[in-house]
## 1
Amino acid sequence: MRFGLRSFETSGKQRGLWTDAFRRYRRNKGAMLGMVLLLLIVFAAIMAPWITKYSPFKQRIRDALSPPSASHIFGTDHLGRDLFARIIYGARTSLKVGSIATGIACCIGIPLGLVSGYYSGWLDTIMMRLVDILLAFPGMLLALAIMAILGPSLSNAMFAAGVYIIPDYVRVARASTLAVREMDYVASARAIGCPSWYTIQRHIFPNVLLPLIVLASLNLASTILFVAGLSFLGMGAQPPTAEWGIMLKDGRLYLRQAWWPAVFPGLALLISLLAINMVGEGLRNALDPRGLARGR
Amino acid sequence: MSSSNGKMIRMSVLLGVMLCVALVAGPVVGADPVEGGHLMIAFYSSIQDSADLCKATAVYTKMIVANGLDTLIAKDPATGQYYPGLARSWKISPDGLSVTLVLREDVTFHDGTPFNAQAVKANFDHIANTPDCAGKEAYSKLGVGKSLAGYEVLDEYTIRITYNQTNARMVENLADPFVGAMHSPAAFERYGDDYGQKAMVGTGPFVFVEWTGDQGKVVFERNEDYNWAPEFYGHQGPAYLEGFTVQGIGDPTSRAAAIEIGDVDMAIVEPTDFIRLQDAAGLKGWLQSRKGWGDLSINLSNPILQDLRVRQAIAHAIDKEAINESPVFQELGEIKYCEFTEGIWGSDPSPKEEFGKYNLDYDPEQAMALLEEAGWKDTDGDGVREAHGVEGVEDGTKLHLLDLVRDYEKSSHEIIQGMLSEVGIKVEVRVHDFATRETLLFEGKFDIAPWPTTAQSFFAFNEEMHSESVPFYNIGFYGNPVVDALLDGALATTDPELQREYYRLVAIQVLKDLASIPTVKIRNTWILKAEVQGVKSDLMSVGFDLYDAWMGQ
């Protein structure tokens, strides 16, 4: 049944789509570099308590703004907290933020897109107009409106970021569904009396998954940046959370006095986003050569 | 020829030297003021709530708007002495229950309407009868519904205000912009509910032009007809400046950048930028010690905080010296030993000498012992204590406090958050904008919060600590009959020494009760262009009085 997940080489040797995709991915040096960096970041986030002896929250006011040294390799911030500890614990926060926000968007956006594309008609029209309304709001404005209602916190910022990217998933899922529902195997499923929910779940969803995986990988980076932006504005993570956006905000106040509290969180954000984007681009080239997964 | 050349060279050298000296020296200090120039100011905000001061609660609003207003009685911020303002003279009745004001006859509002006793009455009516003013500072200071018995126009330029009990504060209130500043009654009628938003019409040296919001700008222009300045000012007639603009810039880095690149003429900056810029070429620093009181307010309606031992533990856990030494304060803060700042209490004896012995020392061990004794123990080892047999608190409840701050208070309260976490108290520091935070505070939806109030004298203490002031402005729900009696006593006497003694006793009692915990008071750290001269502190030392200000060449 899973026609969309199989391909054949002219030699006649059959290979799975994932094997093909992995081969294509491996040939992409940028994507491999991104993957290595991302794995390092994930490793650091998981192993944080074993990598550093310092707590990311412990203040030593009289050691505030100490420059990088053997005891504090990234120096200390304005409250005397070890910056290296805060950066690697901050990786935990950022990865969690990106994953949850993307997860929220996937959980809401994909079913809506599947239903919208499968049924078409008035349901599709209403859903697409709702998506258009969401798209009409500038992302940050929408997020600030949500934060104004719910109050500033990291979980609310994740929710706002998730809501902001829902339209991406609705549109990609719908577009793919429109194409897949015309396939013979979907018509066959209908002909033998499969209920709609079963057809969507069993025959359509697996065949629209690839562009959505690519979209999710790209959105991971954008949601991390988005939430870091909200934290920078004071609407996201609240003190003393180790989060790169709030660290950047605090650090830039002392930039003329000490460069390290702003530069290291900025670098961490830069490297992480670069790594995730490189992985995302690699996945797109490997899984979605037709380029169905396009964000805004 | 050679002699002529030599003369030319000598003249050139002399001129060059003179030019260099002029360039290096900059504007001559003590030079005569010159007219002209529009002063650009970068501040935390422009007007925050309403230019109609009876509707306002924000002290920055009052400070900015006061530049366009005159008060009935004027008070010199430098000496504390009272002078004739819009009232030529005033007389307090022998029983201390009324004050009769004889007004100036040569004053007109910015809209051309005359100032007289009917205008004063209309202003008091506005404060007493406008729904948005009820309960606010102007309403409370006028004594509406409490000590105010009434006011009557005796003739065109005479008005009498009567109280039903001796009110030692009446003169100070009439010198306060919230109550004593006069707005045009014609403008009240013309603009209705929009007065204070679209217009503000006073009698002061500057005329309101426009206001574009909290983080926008407020623009004032010179009142060319102004000729009734109180005598403590350095000159008479119109202001030297053609006008001024206050631009609200919430971001401290942007404020520092604005003064550094010359976009503005003066800016309030963070201590770290003050240290860096105060000696920079073409700039100068101005350190302004705020007058006021209050500090870390405690919400006593919370059963957890009703236990004195918990409040004592909080006080023992806070290291004030370390806070002041942090990069946040750069040792420019004022370490507090009582509710009053030194600007209110005075320096002989200093607050430390007078009240230091009632302060609890930094002692985390003692803090932890007090919490244990109060039933707060960390049995699950997560670093946060839980209730075990605490009266009024369910067992297992975490010792978790909510601290509501404004953005610029975040860093200093993160320090307190870190210090309290060391003794097992988890503090959630939540940043809110001015209006949201104030609403939450007045609704009692907090546990601890910075509440550093500005004031021009001891009297403000009555509004903040009297049990009748809950929740405006006694946000901590503090009530102590002894303190109430002392505060009432202070208002009932006109003897300054006795008043001071009453307030000293109140401050000691508040320290013993730990209704609020003294920590470190921020000082205003201003950077000005070197050519900006004559800027004075306002009554509460939170901002600027620009009547005598001028810009050198």
Note: The first helix of chain B runs from residue 2 to 25.
## 2
Amino acid sequence: MRKYVQVLKLNLQTSLAYKGNFIFTSLMDVFRVIAEIAFWKVLFDNAQGRKINGYNFNSIITYYIFMFIIASFTNVGSIGYKVANEIKDGALNNLLVRPIHYFGYYFTETLSQKLLNLLIALLMFIPVIVFRFGDLQAEIPAAQFCLLPVVVLCSLILSFLINILISLFVFWMTEVASLFLLKDILLDLASGRVFPLDLFPGPLLNAFSVLPFMYCTYFPAVMITKGLSAEALYRGLWIQLVWILVLYGLIKIIWRMGLKKYTGTGA
Amino acid sequence: MLAGIKNLFLRQFENKVAVDHINFSIQEGEFVGFIGPNGAGKTTTIKMLSGIIHPTEGAISVMGYIPHRLEHGFKKNFSITMGQKNQLWWDLPAIDSFQLIKEIYEITEPDYTRTLQELTELLEVQSILNTPLRNLSLGERMKFELIGAFLHGPKVLFLDEPTIGLDVSSRRRIRDFLKYINVEKKVTVILTSHYLEDIEELCNRIIAISHGKIIYDGSLSDITTGELPINDIFESLFNK
């Protein structure tokens, strides 16, 4: 366990070594939220007080802000690129020969970055929440509040596993940049980072509810903003756990197959 | 152009055999020079010995372990350093990377402190332990890479061109270091290098490989005639 704590520490140190880069990345996210808010403002101004699928301007902004805070923690697209590149250019060799668990190592690295991102996102939005700009509505029942960290952690693990699974295709494809672009777009959409998924027609939403993607962001965001019945919450948590096990199993199999093909290219 | 389009639809792969039916065994405490021209299969062999890649055929045993099973017991007892790859953290001082290595290999505090002090003194790098790696010269970085490879006290050390691109004095210091760990610490070392002095000064046995096949395996000097086959081997390998 201590080795992973050390990995966490070193990663925090590296992130802080590049303060400028880190601040600009965070700023980029802020502009994204501002752009989304501006877009919905125009839309609702023209809808003249009507609701869109049950959303009014306030509830949609609430969704965006909480979704953004959660996504800052659970959106781990960059780790997939990193793993894929390490396999491609042979940097994986360095980890392969050391007595440490590869995915444990990568997960720790992700966790350290995500903790920093979450911290920044919270700092940015605490003023918004405290001073009640735009009348935010969080409907989460007090009883479910203690389960929130569990759900969000499961979301992170799920999102991590999906990204790792896709990155492993690099064992067979050598170049996965295009696959990753496609993945980012689909994952953004399917996990509710573009707009709330209940704007989709019912049958589509039902299909999404058995796939893992919406449990990466949408599920915890709805849990906070709209509130879930106890039944819906436990069902979602179960689906998260089942997918985590399924994906982890798949990754182990594909990893073993991939290593047989691995050539450790580049010196 | 046409070939390029054809290639898009009908891909043809050619299987290149990098290492072909090589066979050798190395005793504990030996210092083996593994030599051959670029592309001969040296690195491939070392990668197979350290478990990074799977052999398509044949069997390998290192300290009784099958390398590509990547068992922790195996990994704790060997180390691999490649002259062209960084293993330490680029943005951080070497001391931070060493702390990580200490935790990964579960090295005890007294062992760690003693080994680190001994090795940094030997390579004279105490004064730059706290400088971020990216600000160091190639030679200084290589010295740290070697320390990093040796902190956990491996029994077997694979070194793939550790002296590549270094100046004469750095190379000499690294040679002294390697001699020390082989003689004093009883570490078995397999070294690849394109520098004749490295091989001559360090190795008591050489394995020469060309096009994936072993063309010489034996001592550097012929005991009966006193001749140096190493010179001929270098000649025939590199001056074609």
Note: Chain A has one domain: 2-261.
## 3
Amino acid sequence: MTKKQAFTEVIKENQGIIFKITSVYTNHKEDQQDLYQEIVYQLFKSYKTFKGNAKISTWMYRVALNTSITYLKKEKRGGVRIPIEKILTYKTEQEDTIIEDRIVLLHTQIKKLNIIEKGIILLYLEGKNYDEIAEITGFTNTNVGTRLSRIKEKLKTQILK
Amino acid sequence: MELEEMKSLWSNLSKEVEQQKILTDNLIMEMTKERINSKLNKIALPEMIGALVCFAGALFILANFSKLDTWYFITCGIFTISYLILLPIVSLRSLFKMKNVSLDDTNYKQTLIKFSRNKKRYMMIQKSSIYFSLLLVFTAMPLAGKIINNKDIFFESNIWYIYLPVMLVFLFFFSRWGIKCVNNVTQSSEDLLKDLEKSSSSN
């Protein structure tokens, strides 16, 4: 398998991660498409030098989250967007509308958090433990814990409002 | 909503998203190729166009510099040329620095710190450019009059009676709006940096 094939396999395998990250860091469909494309491009660039020291998912979260931080909305609007409408118009197929509503509510509230909190809660919800979150974000385990309980309180208050 | 409920809702969402395998090899390579080909699109276009206009202006004054025959026109000329050349260079350099933060060998916190610092620096440059543009308004008009019509409008008080109040009102509102925007962005970067530095010292 060539490096290019290996890369496309990794992306296909983890496309859900990119979708979830882009949906948290953007507010509009066009921005999400741009960010999605930018993340794939940054991963492509970084894959050439990826030596496998970290887990592939850790590397992927790191590059995708860093790209989301440095993503500047207005400058990318001029570029060509590859039609990936289907992915980005994801609609849950949940039959239970209560769960669907709760997911939408959670998503809306996460978007209101600041950029540090967004990254930490996203990794937590993705099932990462404190060690993994600390490795990806650069905060200590204790700091991750403290921040998570603050985020929990914040989300609770936001949702109750 | 408790964290456990959030986790379970997120896992529901994940399952749904994971099932939708829509990306193909071609689509992925098309996305990367488009980004490689449109490298120039990533450079902030308005800033690039602005810089070109400034350089053209500087070149125009430079080409007609011999027409500036008094000390005050020469001073205005030197100030305007320096402004039109230096500011776009400093501004673009700062913009590139902000955008070229390494993404694969730094963690989230390091990227946030670097990006916020560079962003703050960029916004400070934008702020000083607003102040300098106030001065530019008072030097550009006499220069244009001298170069194009060979008129010394410093001694034509009628023009100043109209030009000055109009420009002052315009600049007052423009700079108030511009500085407010810059201050908001700078403040949010500062808050973020404070939060990150606080966590560094408590670690």
Note: The CA atoms of residues 43 and 60 of chain A lie 7 Å apart.
## 4
Amino acid sequence: MNRMKSLHQEGRKEQKRYLGDDQWRKARNLRALLGVLAQTGREGVLEQRRWLRLRMDGEELTEQETALYDRQIRVWGVDAQRRLSKSHILVSGMKGTAVEFCKNIVLAGIGSLTLMDDRMVTEEALSANFLIPPDENMFSERSLAELCCDSLREFNPMVRVSVEKGDLSTFDGDFYDKFDVVVVSCCSLRTKKLINEKCRKRSKRVAFYTVDCRDSCGEIFVDLQNYTYSQKKLVDTIEQQLQYPSFEEAVAVPWRALPRKVAKLYFAMRVIERFEQTEERNPGETSVADLPSVLKLRKELCETQSLNESHIPDGLLERLLAGRREFPPVCAIIGGILGQEVIKAISGKGDPLKNFFFFDAFDGKGIIEDISNPDTGS
Amino acid sequence: MDAEQQLQAIKQAKVLMVGAGGIGCELLKTLALSSFQDIHIIDMDTIEVSNLNRQFLFRQSHVGQSKAKVARDAVLRFKPHINITAHHANVKDPEFNVDFYKQFNIVLSGLDNLDARRHVNRLCLAADIPLVESGTTGFLGQVTVHMKGKTECYECQPKPTPKTYPVCTITSTPSKDQFEGGGGGVSLPLARNFSLPLARNLLTGTISLSCLVHPCLSFSHLCTPVLGCFILFVHCIVWAKDLLFSKLFGDKDQENDLNVCSNNATSSSEHAEDVFKHILDEDIEQYGRRIYDHVFGYNIEVALANEEAWKNRNRPKPTYSSDILPDKLIQQIGNLDNGATDDPSSVSAMGSLGLKNPRDIWNLEENTRIFLEALKLFFGKREKEIGNLTFDKDDQLAVEFVTAAANIRAASFGIPLHSLFEAKGIAGNIVHAVATTNAIIAGLIVIEAIKVLLCDTNSYRMTYCLQHPSRKMLLMPVEPFEPNKSCYVCSETPLSLQVNTHRSTLRDFVEKIVKGKLRMDFPLIMHGSALLYEVGDDLEEDMAANYAANLHKVLSELPSPVTSGTVLTVEDLQQELSCNINIKHREEFDEENEPDGMLLFGWTQAPPMNMDNSLPV
């Protein structure tokens, strides 16, 4: 008897492996439906009616999913949860903020998460990373992405987490088709532009985000291309359309065309970004010693853009240059906001931010800035 | 700020965290990553499946274990060389007294209820230790800093009293009126971006608090038609849960005015007091139908008899079980012996009726079936518990019964019906919670904590995490308020009480003022050096008898008489809170407006709302 049972289980496992999770679940549902239809009598008819009603609105969440996600389904609804569970997300660059973000979306129950970061573990990489137990892995031959992957899988067994090796900027456009969302962190200005363009060229929308934290400051950039969603106003729901510029288009918007009170952090980040590009530094490879050259660059940029230099205070630039270590509270905050935004974009629920977000622990403000061409909105 | 100096301050700090739930998990992780070395954490809860979607330190295999301990072990895996001490205990336990608090540099709170928050606030004040408070609901959250003498304490702003549903009106009719008029003091900073979920939280008693409450919007803004229906349904749930459910399955001796539905005594013998009593050998279905017809039929008829009440309202429709389900129909469905399991805790009326999806809205017929079936299952499978049951959101059968009863009542009153999933959320005061908000709030707590450790007083902020930007901000810092000079908790300003000292007893004073308003758990009342009353486990027998006798006496006839001009000292030794009350005799009180028969001044009345501040953990 036991042997029969274990054979049966083996068979199911085999079936599952062969069909893949999604297919297998469908097959299982179908099998159950056949079972239900075979029932007769009044009870059977009732049961059939119930089944058909259940299946009408598409894939149903499993009992397990409903129990696990109970509290958040109460926030964003079962439709949103269903869309989340079918979404595929790529994250490149596994520093503290990206790690926080990954935790958030894995807990939220996305379909799959692909990680990219071939760097080996260093003490610095560990400082804001709670996914990697330090000692046992210090000398292992595995990359950051691989080590993070192990822990993330444990967070939520219903999410498929995997690793992709290589340099993202060299990948073909086809590669991006597999994803609904691409998040890049700690990469150069050039790479950001390049990957953003690749995402934009796909036939379906691949939402693109960049995220960076320096010292106690953080920045998020969002490109949802053309995004339509229903906005809830008290009782009515209205259709909203947003046009996003690409990263390249956004940073090309003349500074004098921007509203008067744009966050200082926006300008400061652009100066540092430009500095790293001209000096061919890796992102974040700066120190206070660079301040004189950066101040010189600020002067040049401000002159060309006719912006008063006081919009980019020395103190702020100094902090951004010096803060090599990640500041974990800021990683948590920026990773949290980014998680929320990605969940909004996938589920189509809630107003997404357009198109930059800044946080500075110094003044505690978390600000949204729309950096787009004032004429076209994008 | 100097990075080196900051790191030094962090490394030397000893931190107390209360709450290891949603905010707690995130907070412990962020503290550890930020190089904090010595952290104590208190939480009495154990892990549940519905925690796992956001309390990321916990796994399926930890369900049932102590949150504090599992959280500690999980964080030590990635930060092995720091000290984390876990206390699996109630924060209100006497071991966590002022001396315990005094060993810390700062207290960080991620609690889920008002009562514990007040307690921690009072102890922090007594120990003079700064407190960082926090809370989240869905996408909303806030962080506040409380430092004695510098910023307001957690109780400087009046806190809404928990769960004060106006049951009297719920007994008779669900009505919007009390919501439209009553909430003058309740308002939201999110006025223009006000959302329905927020309103739901507000109304189901899950929203906070001091911080979401700001004097800029009146409550009437909230009463949109959609919301109106929702509010009315909340009434139906309260009726089903607090009145019907507890009448049938709870403590029989409890006061319960379910029977008193009309002022006139038209009750025939059939509808006398014992209508809810199960007669020996009575068929359970028969019994169920009798209850059904009484509460959904007869009671409504009685209410309708009062023509005056229905002038400007829709008249409800009495519902009788035989109209919905002709006799015998349910016999063939609910077969008790057919249960797949003998475990009484897993019986389900949905299960035996074959209803599967908790998000389906049942029609009146299905609700009626569930009502009768659930009742039957309670009497058939869980008879031993009857008489001692209290509603529990994790008790499937209880939720089914309450959902069905609320829906049948809603149908009578023409209020839209709701699914079990929604009803469960309302009945169980379930807090909406997502991981991201907790992560953000935890980050903000640590930022404030570091400022406190560096004594950077001028840069303390209270921060709101908003769902919709306000002046471009999603995270909005605000300068903290000064302490409220007349706060009875953090200032020494005496309170004053108008009371009829010849009529009110010491018991009235203890229940209505000391417990009801000052929220003391273990009060001690003194008149000069004479002890009038105290609560404690270690009282001498004769003292206890003495106090018991005092409770029955009116104030002016106490051994040490309390009259106009007397100053009473009221203390709670566990909360380390003490305040003086000036007594002033007053002869008459207005029964309607001053139902307590006494009036306390210097204490701010909380908004008359049914909010209970229970933010998620």
Note: Chain A touches chain B through 71 residues (CB under 8 Å).
